[in-house]
């Protein structure tokens, strides 16, 4: 594949950041953010996908391996961490990201969180074979503390295999703690080495001079760079992968051959026991199965022409089930028509607002209206207009570039 798709995921409170990177020169082609992984499904089908996971949800630490335990380290390490864990060993996934001499550097994340991320990717039809803690993609050198601003979060990397994620309120604490640790652990630090210690910050715009780090006895070097571009480019050289143990992805060859293995074994046994005639009968059955699959795919494309690719049979079944559910609930559409008649002139009163989607919830007798505009003031004007006719709630507004998006919830005034 000529490009990689780097996706940074967290939870529902954070946007999903993404970047496309050319494989030949490791340069970012395109980047952006979205709220749903399904928005990236089409891009993911033709690109190698690498997932960066929000390190807020995991712990990066290290343990000392007992003598003779290197071969069994995957089994030993979780129990070496048992006393330090806030949860039972069985409730967490421990992945070794690096090993140096008798030290194992590990990432600890709850099984529940791993499964939630995997479920979200599966629902979007995205196959990623490498998950990297995002802080390990922040540029770092041994004489510096690296900080990177991503949206409202700050990524802090303080060693080759360790880092944390938090808000801007933590910056001064991280800087002071790192400086104190270097003083305590390097008593033989020469004056030249001490002078070379710096804090390096990566931000979209240069911060104000009175930022929390300005009070520290360390030079702070700020570099203007697009955060997701930097993480995407740096991920190329990271070998760490959370997909170990039970989460290890199967090889593409095994995944391709697995559906055919039972049939192949059956064919061999029948050919040996029953001869050529029985073997031909099985071959005919397989041809019928392929024909039926072809017919089902043709029917699927005829029914849902917007889906040109059918990556898996389960994907086709899920889409058909979703369409059946939509048709079963079609009676709700009749209740939507009066809303549309009333809304049309109201929306025209606020130029610049573009309607993205409508969703009627019969059980709540509410209409969800998702729209985009040029600025926050347009949404306030539309809310004032709608409030004259409906009980109106305006949800959180989000800005992406020059576009502002948000949702209105409308109910009939009692």
Automatic annotation (TrEMBL):
Instruction: List each copy of the GspL cytoplasmic actin-ATPase-like domain by range.
Output: 5-250
- Which Pfam families does the UniProt entry name for this protein? GspL_C, T2SSL
The family classification in the record reads:
Belongs to the GSP L family.
Mainly localized where?
membrane
Recite the UniProt keywords alphabetically: Cell inner membrane, Cell membrane, Membrane, Protein transport, Transmembrane, Transmembrane helix, Transport
Q: What does this protein do?
A: Inner membrane component of the type II secretion system required for the energy-dependent secretion of extracellular factors such as proteases and toxins from the periplasm.
Domain of life where this protein originates: Bacteria
In this chain the GspL periplasmic domain maps to 258-413
Which Gene3D superfamilies does the entry link to?
A: 3.30.420.370, 3.30.420.380, General secretion pathway protein M, EpsM
Q: Which organism is it from?
A: Salinivibrio siamensis
Q: Which protein is depicted? A: Type II secretion system protein L
Query: Where is this gene product found?
Result: Cell inner membrane
Membrane protein topology class: Single-pass membrane protein
């Amino acid at each position: 594949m000529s490009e990689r798709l780097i996706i940074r995921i967290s939870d529902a409170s954070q946007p999903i950041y993404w970047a496309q990177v050319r494989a030949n020169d490791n340069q970012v082609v395109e980047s952006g953010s979205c709220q749903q992984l399904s928005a990236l499904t089409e891009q993911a089908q033709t690109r190698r996908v690498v997932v960066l996971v929000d390190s807020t949800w995991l712990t990066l630490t290290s343990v000392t391996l007992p003598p003779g335990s290197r071969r069994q380290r995957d089994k030993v390490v979780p129990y070496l961490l048992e006393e330090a864990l806030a949860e039972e060993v069985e409730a967490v996934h421990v992945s070794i990201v690096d090993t140096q001499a008798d030290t194992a550097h590990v990432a600890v994340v709850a099984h529940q969180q791993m499964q939630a991320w995997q479920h979200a990717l599966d629902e979007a039809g995205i196959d990623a074979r490498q998950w990297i803690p995002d802080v390990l993609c922040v540029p770092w050198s041994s004489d510096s503390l690296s900080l990177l601003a991503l949206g409202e979060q700050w990524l802090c990397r303080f060693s080759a295999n360790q880092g944390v994620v938090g808000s801007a309120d933590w910056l001064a604490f991280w800087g002071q703690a790192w400086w104190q640790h270097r003083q305590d652990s390097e008593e033989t630090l020469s004056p030249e080495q001490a002078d070379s210690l710096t804090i390096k910050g990566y931000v979209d715009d240069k911060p104000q001079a009175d930022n929390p780090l300005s009070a520290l006895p360390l030079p702070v070097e700020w570099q203007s760079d697009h955060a997701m571009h930097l993480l995407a480019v740096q991920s190329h050289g990271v070998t760490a992968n959370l997909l170990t143990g039970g989460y290890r992805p199967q090889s593409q060859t095994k995944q391709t051959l697995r559906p055919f293995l039972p049939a192949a074994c059956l064919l061999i046994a029948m050919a040996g026991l029953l001869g050529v005639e029985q073997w031909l009968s099985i071959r005919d059955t397989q041809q019928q199965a392929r024909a039926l699959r072809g017919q089902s795919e043709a029917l699927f494309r005829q029914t849902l022409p917007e889906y040109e690719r059918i990556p898996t049979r389960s994907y086709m079944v899920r889409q058909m089930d979703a369409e059946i559910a939509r048709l079963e609930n079609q009676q709700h559409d009749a209740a939507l028509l009066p809303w549309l008649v009333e809304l049309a002139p109201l929306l025209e009163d606020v130029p610049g607002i573009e309607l993205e989607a409508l969703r009627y919830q019969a059980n709540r007798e509410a209409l969800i209206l998702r729209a985009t505009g040029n600025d926050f003031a347009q949404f306030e004007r539309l809310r004032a207009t709608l409030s004259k006719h409906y009980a109106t709630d305006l949800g959180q507004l989000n800005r992406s570039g020059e576009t502002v998006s948000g949702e209105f919830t409308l109910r009939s005034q009692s």
